[in-house]
Design a protein that fits this description.
Helix content: over 70%
Strand content: under 5%
Number of domains: 1
Radius of gyration: 19 Å
Largest sheet: 2 strands, antiparallel
Order of helices and strands: HEEHHHEEHHHHHHHHH
Distance between the termini: 52 Å
């Protein structure tokens, strides 16, 4: 019952507040104009991240309130610390993203803030401390590996979602799929409280999505994409094997980012320069509609994410990752050589 309650709260908050963000975006001239990478029509508010933030953080705060007040079962000390880290980092990255939406800052403050929230995660013990590999088995990392790996994962995930936010409904829908799979996985592992947070994140995305799906009436902006990236990064670390789920469900956008960094560096010398060379843009330029591309992403991300839940053998998970990586890289290469 508590899962349905938290889902309804997060969904309801995001769904009801999004129209307000549309109106405020136009009133405060925080809108995206037609042209450039985006092919939308008319001015579109970029304040949608506010609705995602209120839905996710509002539902998360309610979980803490009900647990601390004794209405629900008390939260364990370890879960309490970890989930506070999720919330604190989310607030910081959201506020910075909101500033970026208003000022359109250069790349270096974005990376600096991403590094800061990665350190926030580490300070709350949200770290890559151990992993189970297909052949090597269970491995525990020393700090000199754990901390850089955590920073790389958090910053990488934030930029993955940020770059994924190029077509209407793409980033919100993929995040909803990943978060639902995280919630199911955490529940199966007995992490009943932890499961509420990815569930709230998914619900907030689904409440926002009706306004963001093509043709979008609102964009999530940097405040939304960076919030979703940090939340996914931190929540994926909170349970064993959820990183494998993240790598499978988000494998296509992750490989797209890795491919583009190398490609842009070789072609232009600046991997951070914006452009229409993302996979979803290339598909759009080949004649696929926004809805076809977005729904295709949904299907592939959900399919490979479900494999992570249904396959228990580590070797088969590795095979699934290899197949997914091979198909994605082949598609990227085919689209590249046609340019």
């Amino acid at each position: 019952m508590k899962y349905l309650f938290i889902f309804a709260i997060a969904f309801g908050l995001a769904w009801s507040i999004t129209p307000l963000t549309i109106a405020l975006g136009h009133r405060w001239y925080l809108t995206d104009q037609p042209g450039g990478r985006r092919k939308h029509h008319g001015e579109v508010s970029r304040l949608g991240g506010v609705a995602l933030f209120v839905g996710f953080i509002g539902a998360g705060a309610l979980v803490f309130g009900l647990s601390d007040s004794g209405i629900w079962s008390p939260m364990g000390a370890e879960d309490h610390k970890l989930l506070i880290g999720v919330m604190v980092g989310s607030v910081i990255i959201f506020l910075f993203g909101l500033w970026d939406d208003g000022q359109e800052l250069p790349a270096w403050p974005q990376f600096a803030t991403q590094f800061v929230v990665a350190l926030v995660a580490i300070s709350f013990d949200i770290i890559f401390q151990r992993a189970t590999f297909p052949i090597l088995g269970y491995q525990e990392f020393p700090n000199w590996i754990t901390y850089p790996l955590t920073i790389f994962w958090v910053m990488g995930m934030i930029n993955t979602v940020n770059w994924l936010d190029g077509l209407d409904g793409l980033a919100a829908g993929v995040t909803a799929i990943a978060s639902l799979l995280f919630a199911i996985h955490a529940y199966h592992l007995g992490q009943n409280v932890v499961a509420l947070f990815p569930l709230a994140l998914a619900a907030a995305c689904l409440g926002f999505l009706p306004y963001n799906f093509h043709p979008a009436r609102v964009f999530m902006g940097s405040s939304g994409s960076m919030l979703l990236g940090y939340a996914l990064a931190s929540l994926s670390i909170l349970a064993p094997a959820k990183v494998a789920t993240a790598l499978l469900v988000l494998g296509i956008p992750i490989l797209d980012v890795a491919w583009l960094i190398v490609y842009r560096w070789r072609q232009r010398g600046n991997p951070m320069m914006a452009g229409r060379d993302h996979l979803h843009y290339r598909l759009f330029d080949r004649g696929f509609s926004q809805r076809q591309i977005v729904l295709g992403y949904y299907i592939f991300c959900a399919a490979f994410g479900l494999l992570a839940l249904l396959i228990t053998d580590r070797i088969f998970k590795l095979v699934a990752m290899i197949v997914m990586s091979g198909l994605t890289l082949l598609l990227l290469w085919r689209l590249k050589v046609k340019e």
